[in-house]
Structure to design on (130 residues):
């Protein structure tokens, strides 16, 4: 029985090899299609920061270290701005600007929005962007 089976395989070797190859290629192609469909069906993950967080490069510590800071006093009508009571330059800073963090708490003058600071005679600091 085994001898007849081996003779059959030897006689039809090329046809058996061709059929086996076609079957393996079909299975491989089907599985690649399944993987592709699975990857396309997933919703991509996006990483976002809350609107009231500011990213800046730390001036101290490790080089290139990123620091997340909470914006303080953000209102619906605009962004609060900070000025120094003791400054003679009459400049204001947004809460994410480097100058705002340098003002001592006891010297902070907080305006509800940019228009109020402008009305009080203050101007935007040169190193502060909107």
């Amino acid at each position: 029985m085994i001898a007849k089976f081996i003779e059959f395989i030897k006689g039809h070797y090329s046809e058996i090899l061709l059929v086996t190859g076609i079957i393996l290629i079909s299975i491989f192609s089907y599985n690649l299609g399944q993987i592709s469909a699975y990857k396309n069906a997933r919703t991509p993950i996006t990483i976002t920061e809350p609107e009231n967080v500011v990213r800046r490069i730390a001036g101290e510590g490790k080089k290139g270290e990123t620091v997340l800071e909470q914006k303080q006093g953000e209102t619906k009508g605009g962004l609060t701005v900070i000025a120094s009571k003791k400054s003679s330059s009459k400049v204001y800073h947004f809460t994410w600007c480097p100058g705002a963090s340098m003002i001592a708490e006891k010297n902070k003058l907080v305006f509800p929005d940019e228009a109020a600071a402008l009305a009080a005679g203050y101007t935007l600091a040169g190193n502060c962007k909107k």
